[in-house]
Design brief:
The chain is mainly alpha-helical and 191 residues long. It has nine helices and no strands.
Length: 191
């Protein structure tokens, strides 16, 4: 990526997250990046493509941020709870307005929009992560447990963004820990 294109993507990322995708035009992105609109269009082709790259880059950063948390955990239960720990740390540092994918979906609900696949793909990845981690605890109930964990996680991200009550992600982690304790008690049925 050229330096100008990098500045465009960096500026767009801040603007899209802070102001919303539809509220930000290419003129503002170009001005904030210190490039011409021609440079912006030469590199990205369209605002839609900038949105796609913004969301894809954010997801890539999130996955790279999450990996060490999960890898450092030594038990199946700890790996699941590590996702909530990483989310809390990520949210405090990067997501004062909640999940960028959820926020983007509020503006982009058309499956034909190229960013829609990035948004739903990220959530599908999270569901697969939770389901895979749940398989180590309750193999025959992994799909159900993965969905419940995903619901706790995603609800916490939304509540965090709305700031309705403090430490929503920490509270969701506590609920996940209780669920995992209950599941562990009956895990023998799955073996």
């Amino acid at each position: 990526m050229t330096p100008g294109a990098r500045r465009v993507l960096d500026a767009a990322s801040v603007l899209f997250y802070d102001r919303g995708i539809h509220a930000v035009g290419v003129d503002l992105i170009a001005a904030e990046a210190g490039v011409t609109k021609k440079t912006l269009y030469d590199r990205f082709g369209s605002k839609e493509q900038i949105v796609v790259e913004y969301l894809a880059a954010r997801d890539e950063r999130w996955q790279a941020f999450l990996a060490p948390y999960v890898e450092a955990a030594t038990t199946p239960r700890a790996r699941i709870l590590a996702v909530f720990d990483a989310s809390r740390d990520w949210a405090e540092a990067n997501s004062g307005k909640g999940c960028s994918m959820v926020n983007a979906h509020a503006e982009i609900s058309d499956p034909a929009h190229p960013a829609y696949r990035v948004i739903t793909g990220q959530k599908a990845w999270m569901l697969a992560l939770f389901t895979g981690l749940a398989r180590d605890i309750a193999p025959r109930r992994a799909a159900r447990l993965g969905r419940v964990l995903m619901l706790l996680h995603e609800g916490a991200l939304v509540a965090h963004g709305l700031r309705i009550f403090p430490d929503a992600i920490g509270q969701a982690r506590g609920e996940a820990a209780a669920l995992l304790r209950d599941t562990s008690r009956t895990a023998g049925e799955d073996k």
